[in-house]
Amino acid sequence: MKEDTSMAEKTVHLINGTHWDREWRHTAEQSKLRLVDLMDNIINILENKKSYQYFLVDGGSIVIEDYLTIRPENKERIKKLIQDGRMQIVNWYTLPETNTVAPEAMVRNLLLGRRMAAEYGGAMKSGYTATSYGQPSQLPQMYNGFGIETAIFYRGTNKYLATPLFSWESPDGSRLDTLRTFDEVTRTNWFFYVHGPAVLGKGLRDLTYTYDITQKPVHMADKYSYEKAFTVLHEDFDYIHDPAVHKKAMDCLLEQATPYQIGDHILAMNMEDNDEPYRYLPELVDDLNKIYPDIQIKQDTMDSYMDAIRRDVKNKGEWKGELRLTTAEYGSFNSILGAMYSSRIIIKLRNDDAENNLMNLCEPLASLASIYGKEYPTTNIERAWHHLLQNHAHDSICGAAVDRAHEDMMLNFSLAKTVAEEVTNRSVISLFSKIDTSKDFKPGDHIITLYNTLPYEREEVVELRIDTPKKAFTAVDIGVAGAAAATAVSMTLGGIAMGVGMIVDNSIVVLVADASGIKTLADLAGKTVTVVLNTGDPIEVTSWRDKVDGILWCGYPGQEAGTALVSVLTGAVNPSAKLTMTWPSSYAMTPAADWFPGNSNDTMYYEDIYVGYRWYTTFGAPAAYDFGYGLSYTS
């Protein structure tokens, strides 16, 4: 039954719904089970209780998607409620933090959200970013591109610098009539000022729970699940039937909300996080409407409320540019929470990587390849975006959820990036196959092709990993006079295989693990000889070090040894390293030479505290190179 407000001087527009956080206190999969309970309850109440008029589900169309993975049989029931205007959903697929994700990702988010909403009867008319920590300046431009003329949010504004309804202008001149809700309680003034006192018997903005054993509160007690919330088994859902309590609750609501009044319209929002629909809401509204004859509470939708205030507004301010006002009163729910930009930084890095692969590589190259006949992989690219956008929900991308939720996000990042990489690779190969190389290259040439996917010319150093066939090199003995002409040299010194060497700028670099024959390198007149020692420990060098021009010790270089060596030897980097241990002049000069390895299963060490450099400095043992020795490459 709809209330008659024709005699009322003021109308309280009650917006009833839930703010669904998919990943916050729980993981997405944990939340999905709770979502089933919530949505089942909403559907049953709206279908069976006509006096319960509207319910707004604000978490994005992903809420409906998640629910239908468990309850696919209820698709038509949801569709009818949305088409009848009883249930409302927002324009987004997930409610993003708009300053953390790429602008293009926001466009894709709206595209997907509105496409899914259209299947069920359409989304609400206003743009709604309930929990973004500030709003980018181009949001009016973006919303206008989708035919959206109004917006609703709160973070990034405050009551001292913006009127409740104001005109917001983008740099390009696009405009939105924008509603900023409440500094004190953002989107929950009904919940904290009416529901809390009149239903739960609480004080104002009371977030505590008073333990009541008669309600049978239970929770898991094992070491893995004990932190999960209590569940109350015997909760009394009826409200307090006391006119004095009702009047006090109404007075508190009006005191808070009247400063935000527009015309004769007062906004009351019951959009608490993950809140279940309160089944006795219509009865409570009827009782509250008996208090003040000139103020009537009306269950309403955001679209209807926005239409009313736009029609009756007398003082509409203006704002240009971004909205990230940081000023907030103490105790206000409307703060920016700027620390979230550095919270769980790995999430931001993975997101940036996935976005870059999708937007700057995958899609441009797939588009170019499609021009030259390759099928555009629409389904795969949409699938990648679908996974990535699931991670763009505000609590997810901000790093505000429980640890396991953020661990689960890594799979979505990986899937999005993997699909993007594969599409990129296939597009590049397809494009290369269309290039006529016969005019500029010989049949035996190995061709490197660079693709610039950005809309401007670039000049920069590009790092490549190039595979070449073995036949591209000539293998010769180091003693052959023609070694200077060789690209690579197989080193055999004194009959012992020494390793592999290469000619670098008329120099010979020899990679060795055993230097017993290195002195023969002196025979290579006119060559600069550098020995690279790929050893884990010091070896004897005094017998041959004067025969070569330089020694580079690798230690344990790992899988990037090749890259590191080439960078040092060609002067691309300056290691400026120092030895981490003393290199003895011979094995006989080491601290344990007299008793290691011993003659039995036991080895005794007698050097006491005189280990490392202490041995050499205390007893004057000659060293080839002292601890801390090292020459900079450039010196």
**Computed CA radius of gyration, to the nearest angstrom:** 36 Å
How far is the first residue's CA from the last residue's CA? 90 Å
Strand residues, percent: 5-15%
How many helices? The count is: 15
Overall 3D shape: elongated
The helical percent reads: 25-40%
Number of strands: 19
Structural class: alpha/beta
Taking pLDDT < 50 over at least 5 consecutive residues as the criterion, the unreliable ranges are 1-6, 472-501
Mean pLDDT: 86
Describe this structure in words.
With 635 residues, this protein is an alpha/beta fold. It is built from 15 helices and 19 strands. The protein has helices at residues 28-48, 62-70, 75-83, 103-120, 139-145, 189-200, 243-257, 281-288, 302-312, 345-371, 378-390, 394-398, 403-433, 561-569, 613-619; strands spanning 10-18, 55-57, 87-89, 127-128, 150-153, 165-169, 175-180, 217-218, 231-232, 265-270, 295-300, 317-320, 488-493, 496-504, 507-512, 528-533, 550-553, 583-584, 623-625. The strands form 5 sheets. Strands 1, 2, 3, 10 and 11 form a 5-stranded parallel β-sheet that branches. β14 and β15 (507-512) form a beta hairpin. The longest helix has 31 residues, at 403-433. The N and C termini lie far apart (90 Å).
Summary tags:
635 residues, 15 helices, 5-stranded parallel sheet, 5-stranded mixed sheet, alpha/beta, 32% helix
Give me a quick take on this structure:
By secondary structure, the chain is α/β, with parallel strands linked by helices. It has helices at residues 28-48, 62-70, 75-83, 103-120, 139-145, 189-200, 243-257, 281-288, 302-312, 345-371, 378-390, 394-398, 403-433, 561-569, 613-619, and strands at 10-18, 55-57, 87-89, 127-128, 150-153, 165-169, 175-180, 217-218, 231-232, 265-270, 295-300, 317-320, 488-493, 496-504, 507-512, 528-533, 550-553, 583-584, 623-625. Helix 1 (28-48) links the parallel strand 1 and strand 2 (55-57).
